[in-house]
Design brief:
Strand content: 15-25%
Shape: elongated
Number of helices: 5
Radius of gyration: 28 Å
Number of strands: 5
Order of helices and strands: HEEHEEHHEH
Structural class: alpha+beta
């Protein structure tokens, strides 16, 4: 009788362990799926699996990142010209913050084939004081528009091919270099002052 009871307890313990294992893996799988889905929707994870602070728009949206604030169309010297203003947000790095604008113009051109002869792009963002500032601006010629439509130009090519490229000073590496040199100058000045005092 004792052996039967012991055997039943072993079977029960094995069943309990298996049931707990299955429940544990089911809960873990659910959590992983939930984080993946929510993360993609919230913009924590983009399609390339890179964590970002900005949600990627759908393929049929006017731009890849951010929100179109205005899309003004005019005719200048017989040319159809579009001035596109997009509100962007800071991403993890300065390069990513700037590059999102190049992806925006690629998507905009592909979604508006043969519509414009020239595009003036303006990416704006809020500074720490809440004011709207121009972050990245550039002009896209008819030739560049055609190259984007043909697929011969990618986002990484835009800085070399676009005209009148402007990048906000604080988004360039020069800002870091200047800040470092100013810090170095301040440090050397304070050192020389302390040496003079002693």
């Amino acid at each position: 009788m004792y052996k039967e009871k012991k055997k039943k307890n072993k079977i029960r313990m094995r069943f309990d362990f298996n049931r707990k294992g299955v429940i544990f893996f089911a809960v873990a799988a659910f959590i992983i799926c939930a984080v993946s889905i929510i993360g993609t929707d919230m913009g924590w994870i983009d399609q390339g699996g890179v964590v970002s602070s900005l949600k990627r728009n759908s393929a049929d949206a006017p731009v890849t990142y951010g929100k179109v604030l205005s899309q003004d169309e005019t005719t200048e010297n017989g040319k159809q010209v579009c001035t596109l203003k997009v509100k962007i947000q800071a991403k993890r790095t300065k390069d990513q913050t700037v590059e999102q604008n190049y992806y925006n113009i690629i998507q905009f051109v592909k979604n508006n084939p043969d519509k414009y002869d020239e595009i003036h792009y303006e990416g704006v963002a809020e500074n720490s004081g809440g004011e709207e500032v121009k972050a990245v601006t550039f002009d896209v010629s008819k030739e560049l528009i055609q190259s984007i439509q043909d697929g011969t130009v990618e986002a990484r090519d835009i800085p070399k091919k676009a005209e009148n490229l402007y990048i906000l000073y604080t988004l360039t590496d020069e800002a870091e270099t200047t800040a470092d040199s100013e810090t170095a100058e301040t440090t050397s000045e304070s050192e020389s002052t302390s040496e003079a005092e002693s």
